[in-house]
């Protein structure tokens, strides 16, 4: 683990032999990897125990290695080439009353932390997305969103949202619109809105605030880029936003106890919603907005990851320390990837093989 925060390491030439080895390694196809964040510590004890990033071989389910993270490692995204993972995680030795304040930059192949970006005291970064060579993130404590540039190792842009619990975010395909879900599980301070931040330059940005159903948290953009869906925790609902017009076009109920994450299948035909306290994965027909199936996952259901070819999904059963593997053709659980007690798996990411 790197001891310095937001600092680059210099590269030292190691001679022709090392160069040849590097070239040979670059020519060797790399297999796919499943990245799983382990929050660590029991759910009833705030920030008890450190977290970790687990790197798995999805073909065998074998854990290949771990990278220690700050406490309560939460959300993760990866660079387009799969070399770097960026995650929001917690505090060091319980400082800042348990607030998250760091973005961790992880070398996936080397399985090590490269640097730790300090977003600021009480910033509480949460949702995080890699797009266009930059890393976009929410900062709940600042009611803002920010952007980190890995090339310069700088946070190069901030924008105030002015909404409570700016929790998760997604971006439009052209990167000109950012949508944030401003809500969480029954929090009275939740704004119960989605903010649309749009613009094309440093000074050319505006915010449109859209009221949605209660407690928006899960949010995702459809594969065709035309709709943004947010699932709401406190009323079991879904709100659908038209990307072109910034308008809510429909709302409906899926009767969850507390929707946590939402994902589209790559073909856009189905939507998967994890019901956190209900312990279920809810599968919807996207066009009709109707429930196709409910799968019992465990006591608490959190992160969802769908593989790019749409054949299967991984769903975290935080309460049972495992990740359920779902066959998306049969909609059945085919396997469980198990972790030691009190690992608490949550956010996941996929690194495609090359």
Helix-strand layout with pairing:
Blueprint: H1 16-27, E1 33-38, E2 50-56, E3 63-71, E4 75-78, E5 84-89, E6 102-107, E7 112-118, E8 125-131, E9 134-139, E10 144-149, E11 154-160, E12 166-171, E13 177-182, E14 193-201, E15 204-211, E16 216-221, E17 227-232, E18 237-242, E19 247-253, E20 259-264, E21 270-275, E22 280-285, E23 290-296, E24 301-306, E25 312-317, E26 322-327, E27 332-338, E28 345-351
Antiparallel strand pairs: 1-2, 1-28, 2-3, 4-5, 5-6, 6-7, 8-9, 9-10, 10-11, 12-13, 13-14, 14-15, 16-17, 17-18, 18-19, 20-21, 21-22, 22-23, 24-25, 25-26, 26-27
- The rough form would be described as globular
Q: What gyration radius follows from the Cα positions, in whole Å? A: 20 Å
The termini sit apart by: 26 Å
What percentage of the residues does DSSP assign to strands (E)?
Answer: over 45%
Mean pLDDT equals 87
Run of helices and strands: HEEEEEEEEEEEEEEEEEEEEEEEEEEEE
- By DSSP (H or I, 4+ residues per run), the number of helices equals 1
What is the strand tally?
28
Find the structural class using helix and strand composition.
mainly beta
State the helicity in percent bands. under 10%
Strand order of the largest sheet: 3-2-1-28
Give a short account of the largest sheet: 4 strands, antiparallel
List low-confidence stretches: 1-25, 44-48
């Amino acid at each position: 683990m790197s001891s310095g925060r937001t600092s680059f390491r210099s590269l030292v030439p190691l001679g022709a032999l090392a160069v040849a080895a590097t070239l040979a390694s670059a020519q060797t196809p790399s297999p796919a990897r499943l990245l799983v964040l382990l929050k660590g510590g029991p759910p009833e004890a705030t920030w008890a125990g450190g977290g970790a990033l687990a790197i798995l071989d999805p073909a065998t389910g074998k854990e290949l290695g771990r990278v220690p993270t700050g406490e309560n490692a939460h959300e993760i995204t990866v660079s387009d080439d799969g070399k770097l993972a960026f995650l929001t995680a917690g505090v060091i030795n319980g400082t800042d009353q348990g607030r998250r304040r760091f973005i961790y930059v992880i070398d996936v192949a080397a399985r090590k932390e490269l640097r730790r970006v300090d977003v600021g005291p009480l910033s509480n970064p949460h949702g995080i997305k890699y797009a266009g060579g930059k890393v976009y993130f929410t900062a709940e404590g600042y009611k803002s969103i920010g952007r980190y540039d890995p090339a310069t190792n700088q946070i190069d842009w901030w924008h105030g949202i002015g909404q409570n619990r700016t929790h998760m975010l997604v971006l439009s395909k052209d990167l000109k619109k950012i949508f944030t879900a401003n809500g969480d599980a029954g929090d009275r301070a939740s704004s119960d809105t989605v903010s649309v931040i749009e613009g094309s330059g440093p000074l050319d940005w505006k915010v449109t605030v859209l009221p949605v159903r209660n407690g928006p948290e899960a949010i995702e953009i459809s594969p065709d880029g035309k709709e943004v869906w947010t699932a709401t925790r406190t009323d079991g609902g879904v709100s659908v936003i038209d990307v072109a017009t910034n308008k809510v076009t429909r709302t409906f109920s899926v009767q969850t106890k507390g929707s946590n994450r939402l994902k589209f299948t790559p073909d856009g035909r189905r939507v998967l919603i994890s019901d956190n306290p209900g312990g279920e994965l809810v599968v919807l027909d996207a066009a009709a907005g109707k429930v196709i199936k409910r799968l019992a996952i465990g006591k608490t259901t959190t992160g969802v990851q769908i593989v790019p070819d749409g054949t299967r999904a991984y769903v975290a059963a935080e309460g049972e320390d495992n990740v359920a593997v779902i066959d998306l053709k049969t909609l059945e659980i085919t396997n469980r990837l198990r972790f030691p007690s009190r690992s608490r798996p949550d956010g996941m990411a996929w690194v495609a093989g090359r």
